[in-house]
Amino acid sequence: MTRHLRIANAGQVRREIGDWAETESARDMRRSIDMVRASSDPAITMISAGTGVGKTTEIQRLCHEIGSEAMYVDVARGEGTPWNFAARLAQCWPEYQRPVFNGLADAREVLAHWISRPTVLDNWTRRILLVDECQYLAQKDRKTGLVGSALEWMRALGETGEFHIVMCGDMNLTRIVATMPQLESRIIRPVVIPHVSRADLAAVLEGTAFMQSEMINTLHKMCVLKGGLRHVEKVTRHAQRFAGGATPTLAHLEAAISDMKLMPKGEF
């Protein structure tokens, strides 16, 4: 049975768990992106991951590390038609805050030029477009009735501009792409991560008071049930509050998880 402990006056809470960790999933994602960047021709890869695996955090970090060669854009639900996606891309440049294109073909030519143009004069490098939440690009087009047109339009955009593409999304993206053979056949080294692994969680906890087998098991069960790694930093910080100035124990961790309603009673 979970014990409910009184929160102590802990003062300053450590944040080591919030630091970046090189997980197996992070290495897997990086390997595919490196392979795409090494391709002499425009290439596409796919990263499809469950909730809280760390996909967005990692691709944003890699995008920052790659620098001006990379371009990151995310897609929201409702922006999944080719025209809406073109408008979303156009917002990346002040010149196109209110885009006016003469149809999708014109939008593809204009955006392909802007994405692929060199960021430094006379220093051309094949650029890479990282698109997050690509599952929303499978929205049904009200005019044509087609599903996934924006994904195919994105592929054509990359071929027109001769730049690489990294499609990122949740686990629905794997299912969606499997129904689109023209797109699926172009993907190299797809990465599919259904949920947070115990090894990834251990990498996040490395060097902290929570790097103990029983605590890892408890936190991993929580990750699988609720939100992946998203709640790990919050719940461990809460456990430290319960512990006060002492080293947090499994009892403190279980109390924190229960108090935040992240696992049903009796699941520990």
TrEMBL record:
It comes from Mameliella alba. GO terms for molecular function: ATP hydrolysis activity; DNA binding. This is AAA+ ATPase domain-containing protein. Residues 41-176 form the ORC1/DEAH AAA+ ATPase domain. Residues 185-260 form the B transposition protein C-terminal domain. InterPro entries: AAA_22, B_transposit_C_sf, B_transpositn_C, P-loop_NTPase. One of its GO terms (biological process) is DNA transposition.
